[in-house]
Structure prediction request, 146 residues.
Amino acid sequence: MLKGINPAVTAELMTVLMSMGHGDDIVICDINHPAATIARETTHGKVVDLAGCDLPRAAEVILSLMPLDTFVETPVLRMKVVNDPERIMPIHTSIQQVVDRVEGRSVGMGALERFDFYEAAKKAYAIVRTSDPGPYGCFILRMGVI
Prediction:
């Protein structure tokens, strides 16, 4: 255990975050996401599991260490609801609230169609899978600079 580090931060998550740089993306997802399949194509190459952690806690933990990109309008992307792309799910609202609170500002959140989200996720640095049941709990966070 380290002082000042949230106990939900695993050694693997810390390694991933320390290895990322400005403009790198990290995906946080619910348990339904095809994380293992997509993670094989990421820079990290495997899933980072945060067992017992829901999405809001995972976002808070990651953003307590990782700055969001301020050079893009939407440093956070979410997956659109299939057949209802304008629908906002409760988890979308929850993550927006966490992001805004942790960042201390209103942060833009974009949205991608399901398969576009999967393609973007494959280009991410890593996939972090939570135990959150979802649905549509899939987000991409872009790293900024301190």
Q: What stands out?
A: The chain has a mean pLDDT of 97. Helices lie at 11-19, 35-39, 55-63, 90-103, 114-122.
